[in-house]
Each structure stands twice: as C-alpha cells, then as structure tokens.
Amino acid sequence: MPKLVWFRNDLRINDNPALSSAIGDSSESVIGLFLICPKTWLKHNWGSPRVEFLMKNVQEHSKQLNLLNIPLLIAEVDTFECAPDVIARIVSEHNCSHVYAGREFGVDEIDRDKKVKTSLLKSGIQFDVVDDQTIIPVEKVTTQQGNGYLVFSPFRKKWDSIFPSSFVGAPLPIPAQQKVDISSDHVPTEIAGFKNSGLMDYWLPGESEAIVRRDHFLESLVDNYHASRDYPILDSTSTLSPWLAVGAISPLTCLLPLIERMGSNPTTWSIGARTWQSELVWRDFYRQLMWNNPRVSKNKPLKQWTENVPWKNDINGFNNWRNGNTGVPIIDAAMKQLLNTGWMHNRLRMVTAMFLTKNLLIDWRLGERYFAEKLVDYDFASNNGGWQWAASTGADSVPYFRIFNPLLQAKRFDAENKFSDKWNLGEKIMNPIVDLSKSRLRAIAAFKEAQLTA
Asked: Are 34 and 54 in contact (CB under 8 A)?
C-alpha cells in the first residue's frame, strides 16, 4: 500500500517534510501527485510568469523523484472544489494508505484541505498536512497571550529566541524507495489561460539551480548584504525568491550554510548574514499574518479603518504606472524591469507601490493584482504583505504620513542613474504625471480623514 505525497508549493527533495513524513521508517513505496488548477490560479490572479516557472519546476521535480523510484502523477482540475473527488479517486486506484501534503495558508487552500481530509476519512484514509513553508511553525511564534504578532520586531525577537532550540540539524537525505509499477505522467508545458511569458531564459528551474544561486550568494555576497542590498544596479541579492515561491528550495535550506559557519543562534551572526536572515523571517511573519488574520486572503486590508480611504479611479494614472510612463525615472525603470524580466528589486517594489498608493492615490489592490500577474516569484503572503506595508493598510506598515519621495530614493540608491538608464534605454523622460509634493499632502489628508471617520 503506497503512500501518496501531494506536492503543492514544495517542489524539492531536500527538507521536504511531507516527503520525509511519507517515507519515515516504512518499507512502503511512495507516489507523488501534482494538481493543475487553472481556473483557481486565474481566480487567485496568478500570471503567466508564475505558472510557467511553476510547471518547469514540476518537470524538474518529476525527474528528481524518478531517480528515487517515486513516480509523479499529474491531474488537471478546473478548481480546488474538484480536488477532494480527484484525490479520493487516485487514492482508491492505487490503494494508497496515507496522504501527506505541505501546509498552505490562504482561506481557499485551508477550506480545500478540510474537504479533502473529510473525503478521505470516509474511506479510512488519513490526510496529514505538515509545515514546509516556514522555518518555525506559525503556531509557535506567538505573544505571551498566545496571539499572533502584528509588528515585525517583536515577532523576530521571539523567532530568534525559539530557533536555536528548535533546530535539530540538517534534514537527512531521502533514500531511494521500492519501485512501483506506475509511470510518471507527462508534465504539460502549456496551461489553458496562461500564455508563454518569454521570460524563462532569466530563470532556470529546479532545486539544483536554487542551490547554485544560494551558494554563490552566501560565498560571495552575503557579508556585504546589509550595505549593498538597496542598490538596484548591483548584483547584490540572492534572487532566490522565484525558487522559494514554488518551494524548489526551503527557507531553512537557505540558512543551512550560515548555521554551519556561524552557529544556530542568528543573533551572533555577522551583520550581513543577519540582515539576510531577517528577510527570511519576514516570510514567516507574513504567513503567520495570513494564518491569524483570514481577512487578508479575502481582498481586505488588515487595518479596517483604511477601507474608508477614498481611492481615485484614475485609469490613465494606473496605465502610465504599469507601463513605466510616469515621468519619474526610477519608477519607470523599475516597472520596465518587471515587464522584461518578471522580477523587481525589493527596494523598488516599495518605491513603486508607494508611488501608486500615495502619489496617485490608487487602490493598493490594483497594484497587488498587477504584480501577481507579472512576477515570476509571485507569492501571495509576501506580495500582499508588501503592498499593505507600502499602502499603510497592513501589519507593521509604514505610517501613512511617511511617504517615499521617489526622486530622493533615486538620488540615494541610484545616484549615477545607472539603473534608470539601463531600463529606460535613453528615452527622454517627460515631466512627472503628478506633482510629488502636492500629491503627498493629498494622500496624508485622505488617510487622516479616513481614520477620523472610521
């Protein structure tokens, strides 16, 4: 009786808790499963870059699983609602004894997994969901009252206090399994509703590629990360976010070489390593926000009073922003980087988001959705958390009266205009489509009024 591992955003062999749980000490064989859900992906605003990169990683993952005698089955369903019946059928066909999967945090995903569990239990099949996206399970990083955190600094402090005692060493390698008389299914390269992005030359799929990037970053760049990370022209970041988004590498695997070099207590690490570790803790923070505050998965701001902000219905402004025609060189360059690569430097994600939500006073949800459609590394928790941070609607967000001036940001982080020139291709920059000073005051007044009338 084989065990079934339902892979989602955990397309890796190393540090894969669902796969490790399935193997355990058992002599039973293991089968993998991946569900393609195009209509749900469209509903969740996934774009072609994200889906194309995901499916290429599914292909690579299937190859690695086959080396371990684990076939990967592929099933396509329109929506999550079809998942319980399909999984029950596959379990029955292959006489599976147990199903394992990694935890996901959105309300739709949680509801889907509850229905799958209920369906399987009717046949006496156990369905276990295990943590694989966070370094520390979200339930363990809580306040003294047992609540989730809404501010990052105390969350990180608690996280740091827990991690040394929770780290039990590098995960053990996965051994080859008993062969089963089942062949892996063909992994489709085209999914209905998603066009070819033309961006995959930038992003080679697979766990091995993620490890190569990790090693290069940790060996050559991490020690100066704290000083160089905000300069978009520099090759100073890990660019691991696409692989983290599809789970081709785990956040713990990202940290393992640093743990081996500097110990399991991150508070003692070098400032560069400590700064990069903080970025991974932010990923955990945003996931515990989703877990403890389901409203963020329902297209709602975390701060309820910001529902009163009078967002502008400025279609021209939004189109100029998304096409890189704002007349602000650093904004336009960043948006063109996104269009041409499927990725944007993190500092510029904050700058462009704040320009849209504050200077143009356009609803953050439009920007969040646009990034979802264009980012190869689209990850709901991080994308939503970042947009709500910039828009002053979320947890630990920038106060609404603190508004980045994109010209000053460019002066500080792109003083020689190298990044702007690279992506604007020498185009003549027009005047900004909005007065930065006046629009700043307009945004402050709008947020202040919204707070007063809440």
From this structure: no
Listed as ranges, residues in the chain with pLDDT below 50 are none
Q: Are 378 and 46 in contact (CB under 8 A)?
A: yes
**223: nearest Cα among 261, 280, 185:** 261
Please report the sign of the dihedral spanned by the C-alpha atoms of residue 203, residue 192, residue 44, residue 33.
negative
Residue 178 has what pLDDT? 87
One domain for residues 380 and 442: yes
At 66 the pLDDT is: 97
Task: Please indicate, yes or no, if residue 175 is contained in any of the structural domains.
Answer: no
Provide the β-strand partners of residue 194. 191
Token pair 């209920």 in the structure block, residue: 118
The amino acid that residue 407 corresponds to is: L
Residues 302 and 393: beta-carbon distance below 8 Å: yes
- Residue 370: give its domain's CATH number: 1.10.579.10
Q: Please check whether residues 220 and 367 belong to one and the same domain.
A: no
- Residues 28 and 54 grouped into a single domain: yes
**For the stretch 128-165, what's the b/e string if a residue is b when 16 or more beta carbons lie within 10 angstroms of its beta carbon?**
ebbbbbbbbbbeebeeeeeebbbebeebbebbbeebee
Q: How far is CA 427 from CA 149, 194, 218, 273, 367, in A?
A: 45, 31, 36, 38, 24
Let me know whether 110 and 147 are in one domain: no
- Within 13 Å and on the Cβ side, how many CA atoms surround 82? 13
Query: Has residue 214 been placed in a domain?
Result: yes
Q: Is 440 exposed, middle or buried (0-12, 13-18, 19+ CB in 10 A)?
A: middle
Quick: pLDDT tens for 259-312.
999 999 999 999 999 999 999 999 999 999 999 999 999 999 999 999 999 999
Structure confidence at residue 429 (pLDDT): 75
Residues catalogued as catalytic: 279, 282, 311, 346, 364, 387
The pTM assigned to this predicted structure is 0.96
Task: Answer for the pair 337, 345: CB distance below 8 angstroms, yes or no.
Answer: yes
| Alpha-carbon span 138 to 399, nearest angstrom | 26
